[in-house]
Structure formats: C-alpha cells, structure tokens
Amino acid sequence: MTEITVTLTKEQRITLFRNLVRADKFGKMMYSRMMQGKLIGFYHPAEGAIAPGVAAGSFLTNDDILFPHHRGHGITHMLSKGIDIEPYIAEHAGKSTGCCEGRAAWHYAYPDNNVFGTTAYIGHNFVPCTGFGWAAKRNNRGQIVMNCFGDGAMGTGRSHEGLLLSSNWQLPIVHFCENNGFAIFAEVEEMHPTAHLSTIAEGLNIPTTIVEDGQDVFAVAEAVMPAIERARSGGGPTFIEAKCLRFKEHDIGNRDLRGWKPREQDEYDAMLKRDPVLVATERARAESLFTDGEIEKIHEDAEQEVARAVKFADDSPVESPTEAELMATLYAPRDGVSF
Amino acid sequence: MSTDYVMPKLAMAMNEGTVAEWLVSDGDFVQRGELLLTVETEKTAYEVEAPDSGFFRILVGAGETRDCGTVLGVFYESVEALTAPNADSQSQTPSAPAADTPPRDTNATVSAGRDTVPDKATAAQNNVVTSSVPVTTGRLKASPLAKRMAKDAGLDLHRMTGTGPGGRIVKRDVEAQLRSQPHIRPQSIGATANQEDVLATIPITGMRHAIASRLIESLQTTAQLSSFWESNLSRLLEVRRQLVAKEEELGTRISVNAMLVKAMIYGIRRVPIANSCVVDDQIRIHRDVHVGVAVSVPGSTEYDSGLLVPVLRHADKLGLAELDLAMKALVQKAKDGACTADDFTGSTITFSTTAGLAPPGHRSTPVLNLPNAMLVGPSTPKDKPWAVEGEIKIQTVLPVSVTFDHRALDGDPAVRFMNAMHEAIENPNLLLL
Amino acid sequence: MRELAYVNAIREAIQQEMRRDETVFVVGQDVRGGVYPHTLDLIEEFGEERIVDTPISESAMHGTAFGSALQGYRPIVDFMFASTAMTVFTETAIMTGQQYFLHGSKRPVPLVMTGAWGIGKRTANDHAMPIHGYYSRAPGLRVVIPSTPYDAKGIFTAAIRDNNPVMIPWCTGIMMLKGDVPEESYELPLDKASVKRAGSDVTVLANSEQLQFALKVADKLSDEISMEVIDPISFSPIDMETILSSLEKTNRIVIVDEDWESGGFAATVSARIVEQAFDLLDAPIQRVCFPNMPIPGGYMEDYLRPNPEKIESAVRYVCA
Lengths: 339, 433, 320
Description:
The structure holds three protein chains of three kinds.
Chain A: H1 10-35, H2 51-57, E1 65-67, H3 75-81, H4 86-92, H5 126-139, E2 145-150, H6 157-168, E3 173-179, E4 182-183, E5 186-187, H7 188-191, H8 198-203, E6 208-211, H9 217-232, E7 238-243, E8 257-258, E9 261-262, H10 265-272, H11 276-286, H12 292-315, H13 323-327
Parallel strand pairs in A: 1-2, 2-3, 3-7, 6-7
Antiparallel strand pairs in A: 4-5, 8-9
Helix pairs in contact in A: 1-3, 1-11, 1-12, 2-3, 2-9, 4-12, 5-6
Chain B: E1 2-6, E2 16-22, E3 29-30, E4 35-40, E5 45-49, E6 54-58, E7 65-67, E8 71-76, H1 79-83, H2 120-126, H3 144-153, H4 171-180, H5 206-221, E9 224-232, H6 234-245, H7 247-250, H8 256-270, E10 276-279, E11 282-285, E12 291-293, E13 295-298, E14 305-308, E15 311-312, H9 320-335, E16 349-351, E17 374-378, E18 382-388, E19 391-405, H10 411-426
Parallel strand pairs in B: 12-16, 16-17
Antiparallel strand pairs in B: 1-8, 2-4, 2-7, 3-6, 4-5, 6-8, 9-19, 10-11, 12-15, 13-14, 17-19, 18-19
Chain C: E1 3-5, H1 6-20, E2 24-28, H2 42-46, E3 51-53, H3 58-70, E4 74-81, H4 82-85, H5 89-102, E5 112-117, H6 124-128, H7 132-135, E6 142-144, H8 149-161, E7 166-171, E8 178-180, E9 194-197, E10 202-205, H9 209-220, E11 227-231, E12 234-236, H10 240-250, E13 253-260, H11 265-277, E14 286-290, H12 300-304, H13 308-319
Parallel strand pairs in C: 2-3, 2-4, 4-5, 5-7, 6-7, 10-11, 10-13, 13-14
Antiparallel strand pairs in C: 1-8, 6-12, 9-11
Helix pairs in contact in C: 1-8, 9-13
C-alpha cells in the first residue's frame, strides 16, 4: 500500500471550516423546522457527526459522483460538493420547486451535480456505486466515486458484493464509512465482531484508513484526500472508516437508546465537548488560521444562506399535478434526454 | 334453507348430461351418499350419489339433457319448505357457480310468473295470439353485452330465451330477437305537446306489448299481402233464416260467422295449403283445421282495446251447429279472461271478422297471425245493386279481405282458395260437404 | 427471408447494437462463455471490457448496470435465469423502477435486464418460474416478452435503445423456435400488443410457448370457432387499447399466461376489462394460468401448466 500524505493548505482549511459551519446551521435549522412541522417525512439528524461528510464532499469535482450518507439527509455532503441548497429545502417541504419536483421527500437527486439519490435501503449505495465506478473507470477522465454509508450498512450483503467488485476491477471508489457507533439503537460493538469495520475491506485486499477522531474535520480531510488522489490516478478503491459521534436520536421523535437502554447523561455531556464546530474553531484559533472576525463572518454568511433557502422553500407553492400529468412522466422519452 | 342440485361434471370432457333415471322420488327425504340418479353422457352412464341431505324436489325429468351446472333439483330442509307455494319455482341462491345456473323459469309460461304478472287475466293477455314468446321470471341471467344491447334496443330480456351456458341470454339471443322483433317502442321524438294535454298514458307492457311485438314481428318477418273480393250473401242469408227458425231444435241461433268459417273450411278442402304455417324455414300444411278466432276484448283504459286469438280446435270435424256453439263459447271464454295458455296455441288459419263493427262494404288489410299463412277477414255486408241472372237487383254483398304469406302461398293457390270460398258463400249447399 | 432461432435473434440484436453504439455492454455471470447462446462468442468481437463477467454477486452485478446507466451507458444485465433477478428484487424492481420518476423525471436509467424461464423443462420452481408478474408490479419498469424470433430481435433492439429500464424474461420453451428474421437492424414498439391471428369469435391472449399452443388450437378449431390470437408483448404497461378493440369485435376473451393465476397479468387484464368494458362481455372472462403452487419438477407440470387442451376448453366454454 502506497502511503500518500497531504498537508492541507489554508484555503482548503477555510473551505472545510466554512462548509462545516454551513452544515451545522443547516442541520440545526432542519431539526427545528421538523419540530415546527414544516418538513415532510422523517428527519434523521446528523448533529455532531458532520465532520466526515464535510471532509468527504468538500474536495470533489462536479464530475465526481457522490452517494451521500443518509444521516442529515445528505445535506452535509451535498452542500460541501456544491449543490444549490434552495431546491433541497423546498424538496423536503414537499414543494414542486424541489430538486426532484417534490416527489422524493428526502431521497435527493442532483443529476447535474452527479448525485443520483439516496435511499431508505441501507447498504443500497454499494449497488449503483459499483456501476458508477465501472463507468468512471471506463470513462478514463479522472472521475471518482465517493461512496458514503454508516456502520449499519456494513451488515448487508450488498456491501460485501460492492467491495468485492470494486477490488476485483480496481474501481476508482472511496468507500467512506461514517462509524458513529449506532445503527438506530444497535451498538456496532455488539453487531460486529471486530474492532474496526475496515477489516472487512482489508480481507478483500482494499487499502484502508481509520480516522480515530472523526470529530476533527481537518483530520478526516487529511485521510480523504489521499484516497481521492489514489482513485483519481488509477490506484483503485480505498476504505476509510471515520469514527464519529451522533449527538441526537436516530430520527426525530424516536427514543435515543444504546442497545435497549437510554444513553446516559454523562455521555451527552462528554459528546458536547467534542462538537465538530467547537473542535475546528479551537484548532483554527490555536493554529491562527483565521481571525475571530473571519470566523464571525463565516457564521453570519451561513445564517443568511440558510435564511434565504428557508424563505425560498416557504414561498414556493404546493402544486398538485394531475394523475395523468404525472403518469406522462413515468417513462423517459426516447429523445431530448441528456446524460 | 334449500340447496340446489346441479348437473354434475363427471369428467373433464363432459359439458352436458342426460338425466337417465331418478333413483329417488319427488319429495322423498334423501340422505347424503344415497344414490340419487343415473346420468348419461356420450360415453357412459354414472350412478351419482346425493351430495346433500334433504327433502328432494325434482325439477328436470328423466330423459332431459342439461348443461353441467344446470339445476336439476333442490334439497329442502323441511317438508314445509318443500311444499310451500312456489317453492320450486323460487329463485334460490345457487350453490353452484352462478354462471352455470340457468334462470329457473326460462321456459315457463307467464302463468307461473308471480313477480311480473300476478293475476290470471293479465296472464292470459300475455299469451295473446300464441304463446311462442316465453316469459322469463325469477333471476335473469344475461351477459353484460346482452343487457346493454337489449337496453339500447328497448327489448325486454324477460321475454327472451337464453341459449348461452346455463341458459344465459347472450349476444346471439338478442340479435335473434332484434331480427324477429325490432323495436316495438316508438322512438322518442323529444319534447312533445305539454303533458296536461295527454288524456291517458298506456304503457306498452303486458297485452299491449304482446300485441305490438307479435304484429311487428309478423310484418317484419313475412311476405304478407292482402286481397279482396265481394260475394253475394243473399242465398246464404236465406239458408240462415231457415236455420234460425229451427233455433230451438238446433240449440243455437246459427251465426253468419259460423257459416263463413264453414265456407273457409270448404276452401281449405279444395286448396289445402291455405291451412298452413311457416315454422323454422318450413311450410307445414295441416290436415286438421284449428281456427284462430280474433276476439276484441276491453283494454286497460276506456280508450283502448285488447285483442286475443283463442283457437277453435278441429273446426273441420264439427257440424254447423256444433261449430257455432263452440265458437260462441270460445269467444265468451276469451272475453271472460278465462282462457289458458293452451287456448292460444296451435292455430292453423285465422278468422278475423269486423262484421257489424266496420261500416258496410269496409275492406282492410289485416296483419297475419303468426305462424299462420292465411287470415280470412270478412267485414260488414252492404246492400247494393248486383247483376242477378241478367237483371240488376239489390243484393246483400259481403266484402271479404284475406291476407296471406307469399312465402307459403303464391297467387295461384291463394286465388283458387278465395274462389272456392266465394263459391261456397254464394252456393250454401256446398257447406253441407 | 432468412430463418433464425429465437435465441440467435436475441444474439443478433445485441451484436448489432453493440456494433452501433459503444455504450452498449453486457454484464452477467459467465456471459463470456455464453451459458445460453445469446452471448456466445460475443467476447471474441467485443472483448472483456464490454462482455463483463462478475462473481455470483447479483446486487453488484445489477449495480454495475444500474450505476453505469445513470452515467449514460446502455448495459444489458443478464441474470442467466430470470428467477435469479428475484434474489435482488429491491434493486432490480423497486430501485431501478422508481429511480427516474421519483427524482423528478430528469436522468433516465437505460438498461436491459434479461434472463430465461420456462415451465415444462422438468426444472422445478427455481429455474422455471415466470417473473413478469412480479416485475409488472414495479412502476417505472417496462416488462416485455417477445414470443417469436422476429419479435425477439425487434424488441431487444428497441429495449437497448429505449431510455428506460426494460425487463425481458424470455422463455426457454421457444428458445430454438425458428422464424423469418431480417438481417438488417429494426425496432418494434415496446408497449404494443401484436395481433398474431385475426378472428371474430373470441380473443385469446397468449405469450411465449403458450402463444404457439394458442395458434395450434386456433388452427384446430378454425372450422367451428374463429379465434383472434393476440400476443400482449408488453406486460407493463399493458396495451389495453389493442385488447379492447379486439373485444369489441369478439365480445369474449380467454387470457392465457403461464404466470400464477393470482395477481398477475391475467388478473389485471380481467379487472380492467370489467372496469372499462363490462358491457362488451358476452361471456365470463376465462383465465388459463398456472395454479397457485410452486411449480413442481418432474412430470406434474404437464397437467398443471396451461396447455392446448386447457386453452381449447376455455375457448369452447366462452363460445358455448
């Protein structure tokens, strides 16, 4: 295994920090909107566990393909990749100005940004990602695939099959496992026999990297960037396991259990000290990356961006196309379709 | 509670079976597993066990062939149920698939139909002319298509016989009906004069429906035409006067009508094809003469009338007095509403007089009474100048119209029949033959 | 015209489309070696980049097709046996079917899924089962079955060029059926039924080997009953227009399908006829299908499956 080490530039750190703050504001806004009844469906909050997604998404090109992790409904990864967030919130509000015309609820797709939708079928990401990787390799233009999933997905047969083919065919895929320790309530320690999930990939001869502190966005990025580079340069797949913390319950309204017992208050108290924005701010200050004024500006910008997107979603009408109108869009036409 | 017993399907290839023999008697209590009947198919005969227990009513007699699934009998829970009025003609919930069960009363005449025609008089009216239009009562089975076609054409499915599986009325049955009886109801002409102007509304149902449909069928399906002549009635009236003088001895006041029927029979003896019916692409010339006698009866209101054609049987075997008595009795029976279905079946020729009702010298073009090929329609005589042995004298002259079916009779036999009848009217001696 | 066996007509369609369009490729298990003849020797012409073998990993195998289709490729994913696709039903039916519509009808999924099925080969349920009934319940998929060599080539060609996921389960019972097939490339509509024999007394719908049976029965009864035999071809969406125009003429219908009797094509068509054309019926609709039991191996399938005798009996029943 060739070791690739990177040192993040100041510009890259600023990008990461900005995206982290944006993701945090978005997540909190989504949580409160869900509580206000303004979101449709479920919401699976990512709060606390946003550093891996920001690191995974921030340095992808538009041509790269992203399968976002479902937690936070992918906003962390997708806004880092550069999607337009206004249609995102509109979609989650059931508006026809949504990125999927109000049909997807939270299973977003942004084909123009090479994001093709998430799903409720955990582990399903390995299915299309195999094909994305196959196409990227054959396209031979340096396109890579960022395949994000949680520890729960590693229990599925699909994950085995996807890892197997990516290794066989040396596909340009970064398998990015955000191990927050829980699949709903189930603890990873109980559901998996090894200390690290990456051992599964190791068994299939895939290079692996473990990020023990997945709360530190800079640390995760330092692991992600070499994997992207390896894939882009024809080096095949990498499996990254970033260990992170889930601050909230699995989905809003559910209980927050460890196994089948409530998590202890001590656990919450300890976790909050490892808030990814707090960790990144401390590191930025310690390393004198930005001034306090710059940090404040980043927060203000993010709040305004969120406010604009919320207004867009609220102002968008709810449209009710007829059954016939919808039926007419069930099948793709022969002509006028672009890839 | 009752359970239908249907023609069992005893082999894959079996579509119908014949009831060879019932092994129980009608009304018996039958135990499940007991031998019930023998069913014959093309291949073999089967002794079939009773699938249920109960008091058994036999509905289909030995020798009859029925489609598989057709109801052959009914198991009743009790004797009371078995003997309840109309028990066996009631529409029951079939235990067999509904598609295989025929309407119970497909071939029943209207007298059995309680739900459409409750009283006897109406029953008779429904059998006006002949009883060849069976009326279905009970649950009607017709395909969706047949129902729609019948509705569109204004046809009554209850008056059709289903030839589909289990007696279902299907497309071909409606088409057959349409061919023979197209649309008796007048087409709606939209908004008519205001409703207050309508003196009475007579629904075209019951007897009116029967008259309308039968006469339209007659006009639509035969090649009928009418001919007329006049006969000098003077000698016949002279003979009648002598007979009327013997009224007491004869037991009846001989009518002109009876003598005219005698003249008609004379014509038939000379030209037998005048006494024929057209049935199923066949012309059947009859030996015996059964005369359908048209009788005007009261209608449903003071404005309309009814028309019945009861049959005077074996008119050719009767002497003049017998014939006169029989004819008068028949007309009275019809007017009393006492005729049964049998009274309306089997005429071979029709006699329809308007004498006394129509103006003197009146002629008409009567409509044939199916399936008879000949109708004789004398009307009211008229005194008029007439050449008698080279001199002009005032004579009583009878106008006679006949209508005949050209499918059966060409002009040659038809005019020979008319001429023979004319001869008998003018020479009443011939009526002795 | 030149005669070709059904399975070779499929092969010719794939070969011609692969020559015409670089984005077309085949992925499956042992497609290089060609377990069935429709991919036989294509490896020689197109190489391993376009005739792709996978391990026995159906979800990733299908994923290769699904993901690359979203990237503009036109994959044909060959499940060898159609029933194998059922092992990854979520991926093949649900995810693939909903992808385009649920995401705003923007990026289509142009892929072909195929595999063989066939009752009457003594193979029992796993190999024999028809799957079109299951897949026709997944909105967004096209489910088509061509039943003649001519149709096989035209349907596969059209399916490869179509911008939607198309499931084509083909029947081994007619694998070697020969028929006229033009050498040049051509397409047939994917959503239209095909009248295989005109008639006036009864409409009979039949596909695959049952189509051959139905045509034989039509010959046999030609003096008594005029059967109109229609191959539905498309099981999703169903071409009701062709079926109903035939029914307007015949007023009677028998639906033959080797799929199970419950909830499949025959049930759907029956329901739609009752809903949309109740007044056209002059006899009850009859279905000739497989009874609701797993398809046993051995000789039992001969009398359990639809066959010419059952078709004839149903035709006679509705024409009685």
